[in-house]
Amino acid sequence: MISSREYGSHSWELLVTVDHQHEEVQKEFLLQVTGDLHIGGLMLKLVEQIKISQDWSDYALWWEQKKCWLLKTHWTLDKCGVQADAKLFFTTQHKMLRLRLPNMKTVRLKVSFSSMVFKAVSDICKILNIRRSEELSLLKQSEDILKKKKKKDKNSREPVTEDILNLCNSPVSSGLSGSPGLYSKTMTPVYDPVSGTPASSTITWFSDSPLTEQNCSILAFSHPNCSPETLAEMYQPRTLADKAKLNAGWLDSSRSLMEQGILEDDQLLLRFKYYTFFDLNPKYDAVRINQIYEQARWAILLEEIDCTEEEMLIFAALQAQYHVSKLSLSSEAQDFTCESEVDEVEAALSNLEVTLEGGNSNNILEDITDIPKLADNLRLVRPRKLSLKAIKPYWFVFKDTSVSYFKNKESALGEPIEKLNLKGCEVVPDVNVAAKKFGIKLLIPVADGMNEVYLRCDEENQYARWMAACVLASKGKTMADSSYHPEVHKILSFLKMKNWTMSPQAISDPESIDMKPECFVSPRYTKKYKSKQLVARILEAHQNVSQMTLVEAKLRFIQAWQSLPEFGLSYYIVRFKGSKKDDVLGVSYNRLIRIDIATGDPITTWRFSNMKQWNVNWEIRQVAIEFDQNVSIAFTCLSADCKIIHEYIGGYIFLSTRSKDQNETLDEDLFHKLTGGQE
Question: What are the strands of the beta sheet with 631-637, ordered from one edge?
């Protein structure tokens, strides 16, 4: 019976379940509460009833029906909307989680299940010593991919036991505030910039961290490649629709793990979500560089990104060089104080940095009144549906962001035959160094789709200059921009790696070299060539990269990955407003591309630099975007939640605001304003 005094005070009973490990103590408690009792008072009342002496500071209330945490302890039950039918769960905020890293290693650590995913990833990266956590996020593998993996596991004879790196004793994992990561602008380097090993002067820094020297080595170095059998068992996307499945499971950065149905000891993938690797520095980023390298390597091996046979051999040669350098590093002591080598690596890094705007803007005092131009004889190729390609030589002039062509040099003072505005176009390399083919494929937006034009250059220097100009023009930049010359240098260095000549002594006895070529190339090429043929071709390509250091080999690999036409594209199946068929939408760091789902051909490109605003109609789950010149698009996402695409766009806009002058702290509120939406 309830007394008249209690009845008059409008009190009621609330059931709370406590998550604790004491079997002899009950787990369900019935509390007499009123609507004006605040959350902090409810937890105090609960702890007094439990009568277990322990630290309850990491505990909070989880509302099961509403799938939300009650973290605002000063709010009353009435304000939260908690009534007698509510099922509350008093549980720890930090729980164990298994994370599969880009290098396919699994780590087990304590993560906040109550913080927003953006904050949780930041804490994870502090434990793993990865700077720039905003570039990463957590991915839940789709059911289709897991089902295919389970089928293959059933067919395999021996069960695979996973080697898990346990990092559960970290300060951040325990719910305490962690160190700001092993980096500051004033401290000494943490890693040797040539070998990537922890610098001897800072090895003691790891003593209080879960990242011991051994654990750091696991994360900062690549290890022997998996067997061809293991590679064959992994999920390989065959179509654009398959590639769209890879990006369907990104978690919402503005909600907690628990709110998204993630349970204790679940496995998620930690991946680089945004392909803008800012401020890479081998002195501090050995783990980060290695994990980017590994994500690139697996994307190429599993054919998540397309590349030519020539490019595949370059990637194989760079992997081979990495392992050769690593073996020589372990077998003989090397002097890593050579300044010239360090300068080479840092020069590679300056080319490697990518931002939404592209390139560096250090040379502020450029003479912008004198915009350079290119003028040369090139061949123009226009594909024709019912006949052979028409290839004709013309005199081309490149100025500002446009290409004009004339019948010959003498007629260049008059009107051009045609003027092509390259702003917003797609630029695709069409190169085969061995066959002396140096082509540039331009997909120029027109009213009814994309106009396809090919430019043919005579040699690699000419190609590098014109290709760099086209790439910058597509972003709305001219050759006066400070990123033009680094872009030319980057293209030439990539061509140089492709331009190998056979050295008889280098491959006189391929069998004497212990190499499993199947581990360095995708399954498509292991089916096409015999093992001996692959070894010979990889060693042939290896000659141009044989002098590279450990870190440089990885950086060159990343750089070559960035040069691929499909680099940085995340695919989603969408239905555009007014369309009767599905299309694929490619989201990149600087643009959106509408792609024909059947042929894979780009239909239209929209650049973020021309975007005025974007929003989501949450009722019909439709994304609407407005661009300059009264261009507007709207679409619904069929392969994932529309919030994922909304967050991608906002995330890339947010990352474009970063600058080296800022300190390491991020404007988290700005990120959530740009990506959170008003659902």
Answer: 602-607, 591-595, 583-587, 570-576, 631-637, 622-627, 611-617
State pLDDT tens for residues 370-381.
Answer: 678 899 999 998
Angle between helices 531-542 and 309-331 (to 10 degrees): 80
Residue 81: give the domain boundaries: 11-92
- pLDDT for 561: 94
Contacts of 408 by beta carbon, 8 Å cutoff, 6+ apart? 394, 395
CA distance to 55, 173, 510, per residue, from 18 (Å): 14, 21, 65
Q: 394-398 long-range contacts, Cβ below 8 Å, gap at least 24?
A: 396/455, 397/373, 398/373, 398/374, 398/466, 398/469, 398/473, 398/479
> Is 204 domain-assigned?
no
Average pLDDT taken over every residue of the chain:
82
The residues facing 391 across adjacent strands are 381
Dump strand ranges (E) for 114-233.
Answer: 136-139, 164-166
Beta strands 602-607 and 28-33, pairing class: unpaired
Task: Name the E strands within 38-196.
Answer: 59-63, 68-70, 88-92, 94-100, 106-112, 136-139, 164-166
Output 329 or 285, whichever has higher pLDDT. Answer: 285
Q: Which one is predicted more confidently, 472 or 204?
A: 472
Measure the CA–CA gap between 444 and 359, rounded to whole angstroms: 23
CB contact set of 486 (below 8 Å; sequence gap of 6+): 350, 351, 359, 360
* Last residue in a domain, options 63, 92, 121: 92
CATH number at residue 662: 2.30.29.30
pLDDT tens, residue by residue, 411-433: 988 999 999 999 888 899 999 88
The encoded tokens of residue 179 equal 């160190």
pTM: 0.83
CATH number at residue 16: 3.10.20.90
Residue 215: inside a domain: no
Q: What is the mean pLDDT of residues 544-551?
A: 84
Work out whether strand 106-112 and strand 164-166 pair parallel, antiparallel, or are unpaired.
Answer: parallel
Distances (CA, A) of 285 to 194, 275, 406, 408: 12, 16, 49, 52
pLDDT digits (tens, 9 = 90+) for 82-139: 999 999 999 999 999 999 999 999 999 999 999 999 999 999 999 999 999 999 999 9
Distance in angstroms (rounded) separating the CA atoms of residues 608 and 613? 10
Separation CA 405–CA 377 (nearest Å)? 9
Q: Quick one: average pLDDT of 238-245?
A: 92
262 lies in some domain: no
> At what angle are helices 550-562 and 309-331 packed, to 10 degrees?
160
Total domains in the chain come to: 3
Say whether pLDDT at 79 is over 60.
yes
Could you tell me the sign of the dihedral formed by the alpha carbons of 669, 671, 673, 678, in that order?
Answer: negative
- For strands 267-272 and 390-399, give the pairing: unpaired
Residue 665 lies in a domain: yes
Residue at a domain's end among 479, 497, 512: 479
